[in-house]
Amino acid sequence: MEETEKEENQQVLRVLELLKQASHDLQSNSGPPPTESNSSAIKALLELETESDTILSSDPNLSQLSHHLSSLKALVETLQKTRGHGLRSFLRRRASTHEIARVAGSIESELQAWIDRESLENLVKSLQGYSPSSSNSGEDELIRLLTQLGNRISQGFNRELQDLVLKSRVFSELEKILCKPDCPNKLREHCAFAIDSLIRFNKDVFVGQVWMGPTIYALISIGSSSSLKVLCSLIKSIKSPLADEIESNREIPKIIAFLSSTELEIKIVAIDCVLEIGYFGRKEAIEAMITEGLIEKLVELQRSELGGDLIDVGRWEENREERANIGGEETERKWRKESRENYLQRHPFASCVARFAVQLEVGEGLRQREKRAFKQEILRRVREASVSDAEAATIVAEVLWGSSP
Fold it and tell me: Hey, what domains does the chain have and what are their CATH numbers?
């Protein structure tokens, strides 16, 4: 019975998507004006209009759609009656065609709202009914619905969609799955991506739910590269307040521990998290990271095969004059940037000590005197952690060069 209902819901959504596409096609100016009611787009929408008394009349949310469909039918009938080749007939046809396009746009908006209501209702039901003992098909269906939500939200802000999301309380349902350790990590990660999408959709509305809930703790407890990517994205969105929250909840040691993970991808994303906290974090957060041995770990990573330094990256200096003559200074800067990015892709831990120092230098969380004090502490720890004078000299030079204004 439940599978039959799901299949029916999917069929309804497929039909609505086709109708929405039909209304979108009516707005296109690339083709001839819809002078005949048997054009595929108009035909599909008028078929819905003929069924509106039975399909739409019982739902107050669809009354506006029913009104627009009736307007479309009247406009099409008017357009059919407009005959002749004179200027007056031409202008009437143009006016009717323009009005049909406008009404089609309204119909498309109403159909999208209908699709959004159905999709959110299906998602919330699936989230509420999910159990870790469910079949793989239940998990796959949930992931499909979560991906669908993320794609819809990524299209940009929409107040009606925001109201639907708030009324559905989908955020709290997402958080429940995210915080269930017995749920598959893949599903929890997709819930995390959906939460991140909602934050980017409207930070002012949804950020409070991240603070008040256990989202951050859950992301760190999952400890996968995907969950840490979401954490990094949330730090970028929420900035200093979230960095403070991470520090006050004593989650900093766990983030630093990810730098010692056996999985390369986790270490790479952990570096990104550290850099973001370095940029937005206040004194307490930076102190917590350094006390936890961050600089020593960064020195170790920079020393590894995937480390290195960026001072002579790409050896762009070798042909500097030739490049400048060919493309000028702008081309030279572009080549240098591309060379740096390519090198970092191959050596993700290159110059990671200096990159962290730069984040503190240009970041938003520290006062100027605090930046100077931390810079000296970083230099001191680099000298202690280095295995040779040459290594210490290289990293110190990078920190001094890289973090200068």
Answer: 2-117 (1.20.120)
